[in-house]
Input
Amino acid sequence: MLPAELIATYPRIFHMAEASAWEGIQRHGLLSTGALVDLFETPHPRKRRLLSERRPDMTAVRHDVHGSALIRDNGPLSEKKLAACLTDMSVPEFLRLINSKVFFWPTHKRLETLFAASAYRDRPHLILAIDTASLLASHADRVTLSPINSGATVHDAPKRGSDTFKSIADYDFEYWRTKRTRPTAVAEICVDDSVPDVTSHLVEAYIRNPDGSVNPAN
Output
């Protein structure tokens, strides 16, 4: 796939976070779970658990300087189902892999599907709409694409492993476009580790409320 085709197909991509996350994002950018626990100097035993084990509930981390932050759960993921569909990695290895990435939804429809999930529908969320061309201009070498929702095994569990995330150049967009449709050919757009300058690529930041109304992020 060419970057220009990715931009043309998905000119805006979306990140969803807890409503309370905006201040930290403005200060530190978007951080993967791995980058966040490093920033917060999380002690090793807890860091290992957060990155290598399923998180059944949202988890808070705290730091004397940085304050507190919330790490989302892995509710849609079953370790048993994940183990059965992994091709070349252990469950801890795959969890560490997905915890090393910042995730974006390529379409608003996928974002709405996430809103509708029982774990999220009853509370407000911060939504960041990102200009894809701007993001790629700064971070294309760290962008990877996935054809599946890599952190979910609820409805089905497609095979996954070390080759789930492909660079833009290596992603077989034509295959997935033919198998599905153009808008659904990519399920996840990721950046390795962090996007420290995310506000430079921002189109809009807003709070999406449970009733569907929106307010600008302050």
In short: The chain has a mean pLDDT of 95. Residues 3-30+76-216 form a domain with the ADP-ribosylation fold fold (CATH 3.20.170.20).
